Amino acid sequence: MKVLAAMSGGVDSAVAAARAAEAGHEVVGVHMALSKDRSQTRVGSRGCCTVEDASDARVAAERIGIPYYVWDLSDDFHDLVVEDFLSEYAAGRTPNPCVRCNERIKFASLLERAKALGFDAVCTGHYASIRAEGPGGAPSLHRSRNSAKDQSYVLAVMGPEAIGSSLFPLGDMADKQAVREEARSRRLGVSTKPDSYDICFIADGDTRGFLERSLGEAPGEIVDADGAVLGTHRGTHGYTIGQRKGLGLHQPAADGRPRYVLDVRPESRQVVVGAAELLSTSRLLARDLVVFEPLSAGRRVTAQIRAHGEAIPGRIEQLPAGEELLEVSLEQSVRGVAPGQTLVLYDGDRVLAAATLERRA
Fold this sequence. Notes:
Keywords: ATP-binding, Cytoplasm, Disulfide bond, Nucleotide-binding, RNA-binding, Transferase, tRNA processing, tRNA-binding. The protein is an alpha/beta fold. It contains 8 helices and 17 strands. Strand 1, helix 1 (11-22) and strand 2 form a beta-alpha-beta unit.
C-alpha cells in the first residue's frame, strides 16, 4: 500500500512512519508547515510544526530511509483553524483547535492531497486504534491501548470515510516510554524530544492575550445570575464557561464562595458569573452529528466532552431531525459544559459518534 506519513518532527509520528515502512508499505514522509511566520521557533516544549520540527522530521525520514517533503499548508491552517478559533470565541463559544486541525488539516487537506497523488492512506502518530468492527466489517475507531495518551476523542470528528484511509501504528503501544525506547533503538534522533502542548499557534501559551490582540477590546459588564452588575471586562472573548480565575472581581460573593463564569453573551457584551452548582447539568444538546454506525434513541452510551476528561454513562434521548438537536442524558452531572466543545459518544472503547455541543439543557 502507498502511504503518506505525516511527520510533525516529534517522536510519535517518527515511530509511526518507521512502523509503516517496516510493515512493507511504500511510505513517503511529509511535514506540514502550518505557520505563516517562517521565523517561528519552538518555545520550550510548546507549539509544533516549527522550523526545528521540520529539520527533526527530515533527519528521522533519512534514518527510516523514506523520501521526505515539506508541504506549505499555512493558508489552509490559518483559514480553517485559526480563523475558526477566533470566530468561535467572538461568538461566545469554546472551540478545541486540535479537533479542528485534525478534522480540517491532517485528515481533510492532507488526505485530499494524498488521494490526488495516488496514495492509499495517511499514516500519523496519533494514539488510537482502527479495527474492522463497524457495520458490515467497516473500519471503526477505538481508544488506544495507552489510555493516558488516547486521542480517539480528537479524531472522532473525522468520520468513518477518513478513518478507512488512515493508519495509526501506535494504537497498540503500552505507554509513551515504549515509543521513546523504540525511537532510540531505531536511531530516529527524536527519542528525548519533549512533547508539544497547549495551542500550537499561541506559542507563549497566553490565550487571552492572543484573543485580545486579534479581536481587540469590546468592554462590557460582568453580572450575576440576577443581572446585578459586579464589574467590567475588556471583551467577552477573554472568558469561557467554567472559568474561575482572572475574573477581575474585587468584591467577594455574599456567601464568600468562589464565582465561576456561567454564560458568555457577546451580543450584549455580558459575562454572567455565579456559584459552582449553577454550572452542573446532566443533559447535553449538540449539533453537527458525525456518525460511525447507526444510532437510535434510547441507546446506552458513554459521553466525553473533554480530550482527557471522564467518559460518563448516559443515554441518547433524541436524534437530530430538522431543527432538532442531538440530546444525551447523563447518569451524573458534569460541570463547565460550554458551547463549541466536542461531544464524543462511545460504546466501550469504540467511537459511535461525535458532535458539537450547542448548550446544556
